[in-house]
Amino acid sequence: MRPAIVVGVVRRISRPNARSRAPALVAVLAATLLAPFDARAAGDPATPPATTPTRTPTGGTPGTPATPSTDAPPEFPTETVPPPETPPPLREDAAPEPNVPSFEPGFGPRYHIEQIVVSGNHKTKTELILREIGLSPGDVISASDQRVEAARFRLLSRGFFLDVRLSLMRGKKRGNAILLVEVEERGTIVVNDLYPSTSAATTFWGGIDVSETNFLGRGVNLGGAFVLSTTPKVPDARAGVGVRLHGSLPEIPSLGVSLSLTGLFNDGSEFYRFIGADTDPDPANFIAVRTRRVGGILGAGKALGRYLRLFADLREEAVNGELPATRNRIYSSGVVKPIDFDVDEGGSRVGSLTLTLDYDTRPDPVLPRSGGRFVASVEGAHGALGSTYDFVKAVVQASVYTRLPHGHALGFHFLAGGLIGDAPYFDRFFVGDLNLLLPRRALGINFSTLASRNLLGTGIAGHRYDDYAARILIEYAVPIWRRHGFVYGGDAFAAIGMFGLASEADFRPPDDFGWNNLPIDLTADLGLRLDTYVGVFTISIANALGRSSF
Questions:
Q1: pLDDT tens digits, residue range 365-417?
Q2: Helix/strand/coil for 61
Q3: Which residues, 6 or more positions from 359, have their beta carbon under 8 angstroms from its beta carbon?
């Protein structure tokens, strides 16, 4: 056995809501115990009605470079000396500090790559791994070469591997070396979401979102999702159905871009209050608008560096809205005002172009201990793209993680968004997508009439869909599980934050301005987050409340 020189720091990294209700409650309880990771609690952007699969958060942080040496390249020993045994480090090993200096590829001992040997890949094709590495036989590398760590990052960012190790072994000639790439594969059939839930308005809705992220070992992502519901108790409402099919290709070498395609079909109802107090979720106080959507998203992505990626998505949808006969709201004061349904009656279209920048330096996107993520997107819809609705929507989100003693972590999350123009209701900011304690939309369909829980005694109960949104969230995580097996890792976590929703009318000073006019509320969660062979699951208080909302 030939001796090996390890290059870089080895880290273990995982991959980037009466009797007739009894059956529904049983299903909801089971779903709560196996609830997929709620991106809202981790600070990820609210999931749009149809998503591009290539945007799954992934990433890594460069390891601390090896100590530079000014000595000449050492001779490889001729005798066989086994490498020292070291215990496998935990996945949450510390990321390099920001002040760690970078080194040029030629600094320190230099070696010519004689051969690249890949091992541990039982499913993933070797040619896919070699393409992601970005190094070839004949290249010259050093022990502090940033390209080696960049190769690890690219492989880990694919989401196919639990661990990646790169090392150098003596070549046949002096000054030559063999680059060893050892990978440890993880499950690639992933449950992205489970939808079993119940509410006062809808006895039951449920479904699943599943993806194969490495189809045939070639890096192709294929997936589908569906959600079905019973007929809501709101007058004129229809049983809901939503379907998504998506696929994506890895980066095409000749083009330097990845491609994705998502198809969608939605047929459901949205609920609008026409009588009663804002805090009263009684379905009899609401009327329903039936909306049918058919369309898709064509996307392209390009890596702009080790951590930065750019996405462009072209979206086209045909929309059909059926408005109810009742179109006015009657307030307790006797005032009658027309209801703004935020969707055209009959046929209409949405055509938009979205640009997204995603900067991710987290060593572990699922159970992070350091690094951060910044995502900024701008979507524009216009008649030139075939759209009946003209609007511009911008969303900015940031997450920063700080390592604490004993492997604990503190996360700070911020989200802000604004919309200008005439957008349909399903493109506006929804209270359930911001408040962890409420049911969120399933594939873009809302099944609940519950208002925000108004823990601060403000005016938030009157806000469901708005043009502006913001949220701050602080999360504390404690590691409880790190090992191999079906469950790769787990954290106990607690989160608390505040969010707000507003539209243009809310920025006009009222006659009786006070605390109760502010459209803000608290949100929180407490529970366990588990990274498993088939995806990430959350067992938490907010998940239980969001899936059985009365």
A1: 888 999 999 999 999 999 999 999 999 999 999 999 999 999 999 999 999 99
A2: coil
A3: 307, 308, 373, 374, 375
Residues, the chain: 550
Query: What is the rounded distance in angstroms from the CA atom of residue 94 to the CA atom of residue 104?
Result: 23
Q: Do 91 and 482 form a contact (C-beta atoms < 8 A)? A: yes
Are 519 and 502 in contact by the 8 Å Cβ rule? The answer is yes
Conformation bin of residue 444: beta by default, left when phi > 0, alpha when psi is -120 to 50: left
Distance CA 247, CA 258 (A): 11
Closest CA to 173 of 106, 113, 90: 113
Phi, psi of 393 (to 5 degrees): -125, 130
Instruction: Report whether 36 contacts 547 (CB < 8 A).
Output: no
> How many whole angstroms separate alpha carbon 62 and alpha carbon 100?
10
The values of phi and psi at residue 135, to 5°, are: -120, 150
Catalogue all structural domains in the chain, each as residue range(s) with its CATH number: 4-10+60-185 (3.10.20.310), 23-59+187-549 (2.40.160.50)
Q: Is 263 exposed, middle or buried (0-12, 13-18, 19+ CB in 10 A)?
A: middle
Two tokens, residue 398: 């940031």
Q: Which residue carries 């408005």 as its tokens?
A: 323
Element (H, E) at 529: strand 520-532
Closest CA to 356 of 40, 132, 48: 48
As to burial, measured by CB atoms within 10 angstroms (0-12 exposed, 13-18 middle, 19+ buried), residue 75 is: exposed
Q: What is the pLDDT of residues 308-362, one digit of tens each?
A: 999 999 999 999 999 999 999 999 889 999 999 999 999 999 999 999 999 998 8
Residue 102 to residue 232: CA distance in whole angstroms: 59
- Segment (H or E) for 303: strand 286-303
Residue type at position 388: T
* CA end-to-end span of the chain: 65
Token duo for residue 284: 């009899």
Q: Give residues with Cβ within 8 angstroms of 450, minimum separation 6.
A: 199, 200, 201, 281, 438, 439, 549, 550
31 within 8 A of 194, measured Cβ to Cβ = yes
Distances (CA, A) of 468 to 141, 352, 415, 430: 50, 19, 11, 10
Token pair 């992934």: residue: 58
Place of tokens 């900024």: 376
By the 8 A CB rule, do 81 and 117 touch? no
